[in-house]
Amino acid sequence: MRQLSALALAAALALPLAATAMAEEARVPMINVTGTGTVEAAPDVATLSIGVTTQGETAVAALAANSAAMEAVMARLAAAGVEARDMQTSNLSVNPNWTGYDSGTPTISGYVAANLLTVTIRDLAGLGPVLDAAVQDGANTLNGLSFGFADPEPLLDEARKEAVADARARAELLAAAAGVKLGRILSISEGAPEGGPVPMYKAELAAAPVPVAAGAMDVAASVTIFYEIAE
Protein backbone atom coordinates (compact mmCIF):
# COMPACT_ATOMS: atom_id res chain seq x y z
CA MET A 1 0.00 0.00 0.00
CA ARG A 2 2.88 2.40 0.84
CA GLN A 3 4.57 1.43 -2.44
CA LEU A 4 1.44 2.29 -4.43
CA SER A 5 1.14 5.60 -2.61
CA ALA A 6 4.75 6.43 -3.43
CA LEU A 7 4.18 5.64 -7.12
CA ALA A 8 1.07 7.79 -7.19
CA LEU A 9 2.96 10.65 -5.55
CA ALA A 10 5.80 10.34 -8.06
CA ALA A 11 3.36 10.38 -10.96
CA ALA A 12 1.58 13.40 -9.55
CA LEU A 13 4.90 15.25 -9.24
CA ALA A 14 5.97 14.21 -12.73
CA LEU A 15 2.91 15.68 -14.44
CA PRO A 16 3.65 19.30 -13.55
CA LEU A 17 7.29 18.79 -14.53
CA ALA A 18 6.27 17.39 -17.92
CA ALA A 19 3.85 20.25 -18.44
CA THR A 20 6.58 22.74 -17.55
CA ALA A 21 8.96 21.11 -20.02
CA MET A 22 6.36 21.29 -22.78
CA ALA A 23 5.68 24.91 -21.99
CA GLU A 24 9.40 25.69 -22.13
CA GLU A 25 9.62 23.89 -25.50
CA ALA A 26 6.67 25.92 -26.78
CA ARG A 27 8.51 29.13 -25.90
CA VAL A 28 11.61 28.14 -27.88
CA PRO A 29 12.10 30.64 -30.74
CA MET A 30 11.64 28.79 -34.01
CA ILE A 31 11.69 29.18 -37.77
CA ASN A 32 9.03 27.21 -39.62
CA VAL A 33 9.68 26.51 -43.32
CA THR A 34 8.19 24.30 -46.02
CA GLY A 35 10.38 22.89 -48.74
CA THR A 36 9.42 21.19 -51.98
CA GLY A 37 11.28 18.86 -54.27
CA THR A 38 10.45 17.71 -57.79
CA VAL A 39 12.00 14.96 -59.88
CA GLU A 40 11.19 14.61 -63.57
CA ALA A 41 11.36 11.24 -65.27
CA ALA A 42 9.94 9.39 -68.23
CA PRO A 43 7.05 7.08 -67.26
CA ASP A 44 7.53 3.35 -67.71
CA VAL A 45 3.95 2.09 -67.51
CA ALA A 46 0.62 3.10 -69.03
CA THR A 47 -2.96 2.43 -67.95
CA LEU A 48 -5.58 2.22 -70.66
CA SER A 49 -9.33 2.15 -70.11
CA ILE A 50 -11.23 0.77 -73.10
CA GLY A 51 -14.75 -0.51 -73.50
CA VAL A 52 -17.19 -2.38 -75.69
CA THR A 53 -20.79 -1.22 -76.09
CA THR A 54 -23.33 -3.37 -77.92
CA GLN A 55 -27.07 -3.42 -78.48
CA GLY A 56 -29.61 -6.23 -78.70
CA GLU A 57 -33.32 -6.80 -78.79
CA THR A 58 -33.11 -8.53 -75.42
CA ALA A 59 -30.76 -8.17 -72.48
CA VAL A 60 -29.40 -11.66 -73.17
CA ALA A 61 -28.70 -10.82 -76.80
CA ALA A 62 -26.98 -7.54 -75.92
CA LEU A 63 -24.82 -9.23 -73.30
CA ALA A 64 -23.94 -12.14 -75.60
CA ALA A 65 -22.82 -9.77 -78.36
CA ASN A 66 -20.84 -7.76 -75.85
CA SER A 67 -19.12 -10.82 -74.41
CA ALA A 68 -18.11 -12.05 -77.87
CA ALA A 69 -16.65 -8.66 -78.78
CA MET A 70 -14.79 -8.31 -75.48
CA GLU A 71 -13.35 -11.82 -75.79
CA ALA A 72 -12.02 -10.87 -79.22
CA VAL A 73 -10.51 -7.67 -77.84
CA MET A 74 -8.82 -9.52 -74.96
CA ALA A 75 -7.48 -12.18 -77.31
CA ARG A 76 -6.00 -9.52 -79.58
CA LEU A 77 -4.46 -7.75 -76.56
CA ALA A 78 -2.92 -11.02 -75.40
CA ALA A 79 -1.51 -11.58 -78.87
CA ALA A 80 -0.02 -8.06 -78.71
CA GLY A 81 1.88 -9.04 -75.55
CA VAL A 82 -0.44 -7.93 -72.75
CA GLU A 83 -0.45 -10.48 -69.92
CA ALA A 84 -3.67 -11.76 -68.37
CA ARG A 85 -2.75 -10.21 -65.00
CA ASP A 86 -2.68 -6.79 -66.68
CA MET A 87 -6.29 -6.95 -67.92
CA GLN A 88 -9.13 -6.36 -65.48
CA THR A 89 -12.85 -5.80 -65.98
CA SER A 90 -13.70 -2.52 -64.26
CA ASN A 91 -17.41 -2.23 -65.07
CA LEU A 92 -20.15 -4.35 -66.66
CA SER A 93 -23.71 -3.18 -67.19
CA VAL A 94 -26.87 -4.07 -69.14
CA ASN A 95 -29.58 -1.41 -69.34
CA PRO A 96 -32.82 -0.95 -71.26
CA ASN A 97 -32.81 1.55 -74.10
CA TRP A 98 -35.77 3.79 -73.38
CA THR A 99 -37.37 5.67 -76.27
CA GLY A 100 -40.57 7.65 -76.83
CA TYR A 101 -40.06 10.28 -74.16
CA ASP A 102 -41.46 12.95 -76.51
CA SER A 103 -44.78 11.11 -76.77
CA GLY A 104 -45.08 10.86 -73.01
CA THR A 105 -45.11 7.05 -73.10
CA PRO A 106 -41.54 5.76 -72.84
CA THR A 107 -41.00 2.23 -74.03
CA ILE A 108 -38.07 -0.14 -74.04
CA SER A 109 -36.50 -0.39 -77.48
CA GLY A 110 -33.84 -3.03 -76.99
CA TYR A 111 -31.01 -3.22 -74.51
CA VAL A 112 -27.49 -1.80 -74.26
CA ALA A 113 -24.60 -3.75 -72.74
CA ALA A 114 -21.34 -2.04 -71.78
CA ASN A 115 -18.12 -3.61 -70.58
CA LEU A 116 -15.05 -1.64 -69.50
CA LEU A 117 -11.56 -3.10 -69.39
CA THR A 118 -8.58 -1.61 -67.58
CA VAL A 119 -5.31 -2.58 -69.24
CA THR A 120 -1.84 -2.08 -67.81
CA ILE A 121 0.84 -1.77 -70.48
CA ARG A 122 4.39 -2.28 -69.27
CA ASP A 123 6.11 -2.00 -72.65
CA LEU A 124 5.43 1.57 -73.77
CA ALA A 125 7.12 0.94 -77.10
CA GLY A 126 4.20 -1.32 -77.98
CA LEU A 127 1.46 1.02 -76.73
CA GLY A 128 0.46 2.23 -80.19
CA PRO A 129 0.06 -1.28 -81.65
CA VAL A 130 -1.89 -2.34 -78.54
CA LEU A 131 -4.35 0.52 -79.02
CA ASP A 132 -4.70 -0.30 -82.68
CA ALA A 133 -5.29 -3.98 -81.95
CA ALA A 134 -7.96 -3.16 -79.37
CA VAL A 135 -10.04 -0.96 -81.66
CA GLN A 136 -9.73 -3.36 -84.59
CA ASP A 137 -11.49 -6.12 -82.70
CA GLY A 138 -14.48 -4.31 -81.31
CA ALA A 139 -13.36 -1.86 -78.61
CA ASN A 140 -15.48 1.18 -79.46
CA THR A 141 -14.96 3.22 -76.29
CA LEU A 142 -11.71 4.84 -75.15
CA ASN A 143 -12.22 6.18 -71.63
CA GLY A 144 -8.73 7.29 -70.78
CA LEU A 145 -5.01 6.84 -71.13
CA SER A 146 -2.63 7.71 -68.31
CA PHE A 147 1.03 7.15 -67.57
CA GLY A 148 2.89 6.33 -64.39
CA PHE A 149 5.72 4.44 -62.79
CA ALA A 150 5.90 0.77 -61.91
CA ASP A 151 7.96 1.66 -58.81
CA PRO A 152 7.70 5.36 -57.90
CA GLU A 153 9.40 5.05 -54.49
CA PRO A 154 13.00 5.73 -55.68
CA LEU A 155 11.77 8.89 -57.43
CA LEU A 156 9.80 9.92 -54.34
CA ASP A 157 12.88 9.43 -52.18
CA GLU A 158 14.89 11.74 -54.45
CA ALA A 159 12.09 14.31 -54.34
CA ARG A 160 12.02 14.08 -50.52
CA LYS A 161 15.79 14.74 -50.36
CA GLU A 162 15.36 17.78 -52.58
CA ALA A 163 12.48 18.98 -50.40
CA VAL A 164 14.61 18.77 -47.24
CA ALA A 165 17.47 20.60 -48.96
CA ASP A 166 15.04 23.26 -50.17
CA ALA A 167 13.64 23.70 -46.67
CA ARG A 168 17.16 24.06 -45.25
CA ALA A 169 18.08 26.70 -47.84
CA ARG A 170 14.89 28.65 -47.09
CA ALA A 171 15.54 28.50 -43.35
CA GLU A 172 19.14 29.68 -43.74
CA LEU A 173 18.00 32.57 -45.93
CA LEU A 174 15.38 33.66 -43.40
CA ALA A 175 17.80 33.31 -40.51
CA ALA A 176 20.46 35.37 -42.28
CA ALA A 177 17.92 38.06 -43.16
CA ALA A 178 16.79 38.19 -39.53
CA GLY A 179 20.34 38.26 -38.19
CA VAL A 180 20.04 34.99 -36.26
CA LYS A 181 21.50 31.50 -36.54
CA LEU A 182 19.77 28.19 -37.09
CA GLY A 183 19.81 25.70 -34.28
CA ARG A 184 18.69 22.08 -34.08
CA ILE A 185 15.74 20.64 -35.95
CA LEU A 186 12.72 20.34 -33.68
CA SER A 187 10.41 18.45 -36.04
CA ILE A 188 10.04 17.28 -39.63
CA SER A 189 6.74 16.35 -41.24
CA GLU A 190 5.94 15.28 -44.77
CA GLY A 191 2.99 16.86 -46.49
CA ALA A 192 1.02 16.24 -49.63
CA PRO A 193 2.81 17.34 -52.79
CA GLU A 194 1.63 20.48 -54.48
CA GLY A 195 -0.42 19.21 -57.40
CA GLY A 196 0.04 15.80 -58.97
CA PRO A 197 1.92 14.24 -61.82
CA VAL A 198 0.57 15.45 -65.13
CA PRO A 199 1.14 13.09 -68.04
CA MET A 200 1.69 14.50 -71.50
CA TYR A 201 0.50 12.33 -74.35
CA LYS A 202 -1.13 12.29 -77.74
CA ALA A 203 -3.47 9.63 -79.03
CA GLU A 204 -5.16 9.64 -82.44
CA LEU A 205 -7.42 6.69 -83.21
CA ALA A 206 -7.60 7.49 -86.91
CA ALA A 207 -4.20 6.01 -87.77
CA ALA A 208 -2.63 2.61 -87.35
CA PRO A 209 -0.58 2.08 -85.33
CA VAL A 210 -1.78 4.83 -83.02
CA PRO A 211 0.90 7.49 -82.39
CA VAL A 212 1.40 7.98 -78.65
CA ALA A 213 3.96 10.13 -76.85
CA ALA A 214 4.39 9.50 -73.12
CA GLY A 215 6.37 12.68 -72.48
CA ALA A 216 7.63 13.24 -68.95
CA MET A 217 6.10 13.29 -65.49
CA ASP A 218 6.91 15.14 -62.28
CA VAL A 219 7.11 13.36 -58.94
CA ALA A 220 6.86 15.89 -56.10
CA ALA A 221 7.35 15.84 -52.34
CA SER A 222 6.84 18.42 -49.60
CA VAL A 223 8.25 18.68 -46.07
CA THR A 224 7.72 21.11 -43.21
CA ILE A 225 10.62 21.62 -40.80
CA PHE A 226 10.75 23.51 -37.50
CA TYR A 227 14.23 24.85 -36.71
CA GLU A 228 15.25 26.22 -33.35
CA ILE A 229 16.74 29.70 -33.46
CA ALA A 230 20.17 29.52 -31.80
CA GLU A 231 20.95 32.14 -29.18
UniProtKB/TrEMBL annotation:
UniProt cross-references to Pfam families, sorted A to Z: SIMPL (PF04402)
Keyword terms, alphabetized: Signal
Keyword Signal: yes
The organism of origin for this protein: Tabrizicola soli
InterPro entries on file: 26kDa_periplasmic_antigen, SIMPL/DUF541
Domain of life: Bacteria
The protein's name in its UniProt record: SIMPL domain-containing protein
Keyword Membrane annotated: no
Endpoints of the signal sequence: 1-23
